[in-house]
Design goal:
- This protein is α+β, with helices and mostly antiparallel strands.
- Among the domains are: 163 residues, Band 7 domain (Tetrahydropterin Synthase, Chain A), CATH 3.30.479; 42 residues, no CATH class.
- The protein is 60% helix and 21% strand.
- It is built from 9 helices and 10 strands.
- The strands form 4 sheets. It has a 3-stranded antiparallel β-sheet, with helices on one face. A 3-stranded antiparallel β-sheet has the order 6-7-10.
- A hairpin with a 5-residue loop joins β6 and β7.
- α2 packs across α4.
- The chain starts with a strand and ends with a helix.
Length: 339
């Protein structure tokens, strides 16, 4: 009404109210009445802005790569940027009357592009593809010291490089190279696995041979031990046999000596008996034989006397015509013989 209007701003909007070229009011998230014909409003958004980007560059080996990422920033000095860019607000339509605020994003992207180009120019294609994190760290560090960023009153919140990709033809060539490398590594793995299997088999064979050798050595030791034991046993047997033979020899020697002594004793005894018998015969010379026979029969048993009587009869058989022997006598003689 009559050009007086009410306006309200968000908490992250910084407002500068100008009258006659001077700031009469400023602050974030203000709400107030103002007279539109004589008042200019400058609204600087202070919230964080995330700007995606994608651009192409050449690597050190002249290979095109596409860099894709995102940069985040916010305005920390509204007065400084409002002096360099036009942030005047059209209060009726609630948007800026100039294109400067929308061009700020492109200016930040251009700064990032310049810094990224300086780093990619020093990298080969493969280094660039693998160095997205390194590139992000380097560009972020340089952004913090960038004079244009400071002069605009901006704060860089973060920079992310999502991907660095070659063109399709180069990517296919790299894929082929990588595929061949993978196949080569697979062949090497198969070769190493076969070598490992052969080495393992050789180790197993060596272990088996070593086991056989150890078993043969043990068997040889057992046989040697058995032979040594048999030799000792045989030696003991020989010693025992030798001792037995020595004992038999000594026994035979003693027996021979005993026999010799027996022979000597028998000879002496026979000589004594012969001498005795000769003495007796010498004493009996000239004595009637019948007397001697009678003397010999003095201690004889009845059956011996009968036998001696029969012997006398037999000596005079030519003078005996007939001899009768009773059965009773014969029976008594037989009984005596059996007993």
């Amino acid at each position: 009404m009559f050009g007086v209007k009410f306006i309200k701003f968000q908490p992250n909007d910084y407002v500068l109210v100008y009258k006659k070229g001077k700031i009469v009011k400023e602050g974030a998230g203000l709400c107030f009445y103002y007279y539109a014909p004589t008042t200019s409003l400058v609204m600087v958004p202070m919230g964080s802005v995330e700007v995606p980007f994608i651009f192409e560059e050449l690597s050190a080996d002249f290979q095109p790569v596409t860099v894709q990422g995102q940069v985040s920033y916010r305005i920390i000095d509204p007065k400084k940027i409002s002096k360099l860019l036009n942030y005047t607000l059209d209060s009726a339509r609630r948007h800026h009357i100039s294109e400067d605020p929308r061009k700020l994003q492109q200016r930040v992207i251009n700064i990032v592009k310049v810094l990224a180009k300086k780093n990619i120019d020093k990298m080969t294609l493969q280094q660039a593809i693998k160095g997205s994190e390194k590139l992000a760290e380097s560009v972020s560090r340089e952004l913090l010291n960038q004079l244009e960023i400071k002069s605009l009153g901006l704060e860089i919140l973060g920079l992310t490089i999502l991907a660095i990709q070659p063109n399709k033809e180069t990517a296919r060539a790299l894929e082929a190279q990588a595929r061949e490398e993978i196949l080569r590594q697979a062949d090497e793995a198969v070769y190493e696995r076969r070598n490992a299997a052969i080495e393992q088999e050789r180790t197993i064979k060596e272990n088996e041979l070593n086991t056989d050798i150890a078993v043969e050595n043990k068997n040889r030791q057992i046989r040697e031990t058995q032979m040594e034991a048999e030799r000792i046993v045989q030696q003991k047997k020989n010693e025992l046999n030798e001792e037995q033979m020595n004992f038999q020899i000594e026994l035979e020697r003693k027996r021979k000596k005993l026999i010799a002594e027996k022979v000597e004793n028998s000879k002496a005894e026979a000589d004594a008996k012969g001498y005795e018998l000769a003495t007796v015969l010498k004493a009996l010379q000239g004595i009637d034989p019948n007397i001697i026979q009678c003397l010999a029969g003095m201690d004889m048993q009845p059956d011996q006397l009968i036998a001696l009587a029969f012997q006398g009869l037999a000596g005079k058989a030519e003078k005996i015509g007939q001899l009768n022997i009773s059965p009773e006598l014969m029976r008594e003689l037989m009984k005596a013989q059996e007993s």
